[in-house]
Amino acid sequence: xxxxxxxxxxxxxxxxxxxxxxxxxxxxxxxxxxxxxxxxxxxxxxxxxxxxxxxxxxxxxxxxxxxxxxxxxxxxxxxxxxxxxxxxxxxxxxxxxxxxxxxxxxxxxxxxxxxxxxxxxxxxxxxxxxxxxxxxxxxxxxxxxxxxxxxxxxxxxxxxxxxxxxxxxxxxxxxxxxxxxxxxxxxxxxxxxxxxxxxxxxxxxxxxxxxxxxxxxxxxxxxxxxxxxxxxxxxxxxxxxxxxxxxxxxxxxxxxxxxxxxxxxxxxxxxxxxxxxxxxxxxxxxxxxxxxxxxxxxxxxxxxxxxxxxxxxxxxxxxxxxxxxxxxxxxxxxxxxxxxxxxxxxxxxxxxxxxxxxxxx
Length: 361
Fold this sequence. Notes:
This protein has helices at 2-21, 45-72, 82-103, 119-122, 127-156, 161-180, 183-187, 192-202, 223-254, 261-298, 303-313, 316-327, 329-360; strands at residues 105-107, 112-116, 216-219. The chain has 361 residues and is mostly helical. The chain has one domain: Rhodopsin 7-helix transmembrane proteins (Rhopdopsin 7-helix transmembrane proteins), CATH 1.20.1070. Helix 9 (223-254) packs antiparallel against helix 10 (261-298) and helix 12 crosses helix 13 (329-360). The protein is globular and about 70 Å long. The termini are far apart. Mean pLDDT is 83; it is low at 14-30 and 355-361. Pfam families: 7TM_GPCR_Srh. InterPro entries: 7TM_GPCR_serpentine_rcpt_Srh, Nematode_rcpt-like_serp_H.
């Protein structure tokens, strides 16, 4: 009893100090909410698991087909970007499948808490390891986008000795940041009994759709982590824009230089297609990202929106692959040819079928 009393006193003392530093986190106290007693299916872990697994199952053949197009249908004119594009495709697919199959997170924004429902949980992988895997793979995916743009720029400034030397430590720095960005939080995962007790004190209830025994609290105070992540993501996209801008300027100068007008146009066409390939999925997931930011900063909880947010984010690679196939001319033309052949074969079979049946009759 003494140990429990001491533990309860620590939680109470910490919550008093915490409420003075972050009073908005205690917005839920002494209030009642509909989600406390709701059993709406959209709120539940069963919905999250069912939908993510189903969507992941549909996405797998699309991802495989996209990989086939990159490996076997990339023309010689795009050969220089083939493997960097394939690297991005693999990481995007892994991110999708990581969310839909491997981890299947059931997250309780505005808290960075929840529990996994995926394959890794069944294999006994710890929650903190799954979290670290997904955050790191997401950071690597951002670097993969940088690699594609840097690869295009390198073709134009290959004779620049400074950049050829500087790009190696530049890449090393990016991979180090991506690998160790979350590492301090990973090492300082809060004591789960303590963290759960604090959130029970803050939250108005434990909703019916939450299995309290499975809840994993990654971070108690989320704002510092979210701000740091926001700065790094913004910095990454600023680098991407800078590389795209410099590449376009270099292409303009190459028209009267070493490249023919046709070659410059091919470079520009690819760059425009790749930018569209990035922009459309980003536009799809921008609203979920904005929602998570607002939810964490004003401490708004809606589990249905939380589930939908994870579902939309997990579809990033799927839509990126669809856009890639539609935008890049070689993949689009091959796909149209494939559909034409399939339709022709189907029509031939349907026309032969009645003829055979008449002969038998």
